[in-house]
Amino acid sequence: MNDQTNPGAGLHPWLMVGLGSPHGSDRLGWDLVQLLQETRPEAWTIRMARVPTDVLDWLEGCQRLHLVDACPMFEQLGRVHRLLWPDAQILRNRTTTSHDYDVPQVLQLAQSLGQMPPEVVIWAIEVEASTRLDPTPDWMLAAARMITSTEFCDKAV
User: Fold this and answer.
1) 120, pLDDT greater than 80
2) Which residues contact 17 (CB under 8 A, 6 or more apart)?
3) DSSP letter (8 states) at residue 145
4) Average pLDDT estimate for 96-123
5) What is the CATH number of the domain that holds 94?
6) At 18, which helix (H) or strand (E)?
7) Going by DSSP bridges, is the β-strand pair 14-19/44-49 parallel, antiparallel, or unpaired?
8) Other Cβ atoms within 10 Å of 154 Cβ, number
């Protein structure tokens, strides 16, 4: 998809990317970053990607990379997991993905290429597979508030 909601060339030191597709619960990453677009500080660039490999094109000059994606429901619909790379749980809990390369593979590639930003956070939000999302369910709003309060309040420039 390679959509960028903050147009313009140049470096984006603080980058948040919603991963997903237009199908069912897989669009969660896109929907969440669109919600966050309204409350983000100017220092943050928000982008949307259909596949994790798109992120590799945006890493030049990036100091903080945050990826927002749906993950299978293990415990509770809408539960938010904040994982710092490298975290063994990211590799241990790999699941089937709708992407050619999954997030851990892309991050490992970025590391091998010397493109890994100093801070990488993965926001994984539990969803039921193949479920159609309501326009903005309460749990999605709660996830957006959690990300906003955790990342935007104390790190706004």
Assistant:
1) yes
2) 29, 33, 46, 47, 48, 49, 54, 55, 58, 65, 66, 67, 68
3) H
4) 87
5) 3.40.50.1450
6) strand 14-19
7) parallel
8) 7
Give domain status of residue 157, yes or no.
Answer: no
Read off the pLDDT of residues 46-73 as tens digits, 9 standing for 90 and up.
999 999 999 999 999 999 999 999 988 8
Our count of domains for the chain comes to: 1
Whether residue 94 is contained in a domain is answered as yes
What's the pTM? 0.84
Residue 122: both structure tokens together: 């993965």
Is residue 113 in a domain? yes
Give Cα 117 to chain centroid, integer Å. Answer: 14
- Smallest CA-to-CA distance from 144 within 58, 90, 80, 97 is with 80
In the numeric block, the tokens 């420039």 are attached to 157
d(CA 143, CA 80): 6
Q: Which two tokens stand for residue 48?
A: 């949307």
Contact criterion met (CB below 8 Å) for 30 and 20: yes
Pull the structure tokens for residue 128. 């039921």
Question: Whole domain around residue 95: which residue ranges?
Answer: 3-152
Query: Using N-to-C axis directions, what is the helix angle for 138-147 and 28-37, rounded to 10°?
Result: 60
Position 37 in a domain: yes
The token duo for 103 is 């997030």
